[in-house]
Amino acid sequence: MFKYYLGIAIMCAIFALVAIFFSQHAITLASVFLAMAGAFLAIAFVTSDPDARW
Q1: Per-residue confidence (pLDDT) for residue 25, from 0 to 100
Q2: Which of 2, 24, 27, 47 has the fewest C-beta atoms lying within 10 Å of its C-beta?
Q3: Using CA atoms, how far apart are residues 22 and 29, in angstroms rounded to an integer?
């Protein structure tokens, strides 16, 4: 599950970068996408343990 959630976090970071360049509300969207990336990264580390039940 670590690779799955890490991939989603990387995609959210890429979406934030694209939002900075192409959006009218760049700061708002970038902060939302970076927060989502951080949340998915946290979930990735929680589920990286072999004993994780997720």
Answers
A1: 87
A2: 24
A3: 11
pLDDT digits (tens, 9 = 90+) for 16-44: 999 999 989 899 999 999 999 999 999 98
Cβ neighbors of 12 (< 8 A, separation 6 or more) are: 33, 34, 36, 37, 40
Cα–Cα distance between 41 and 15 in angstroms, integer?
Answer: 15
What six digits make up the tokens of 7?
Answer: 């991939």
Give CA separation, 24 vs 7, 20, 27, 28, 34, in Å: 26, 9, 9, 9, 17
SS3 letters for the chain? CHHHHHHHHHHHHHHHHHHHHHCCCHHHHHHHHHHHHHHHHHHHHHCCCCCCCC
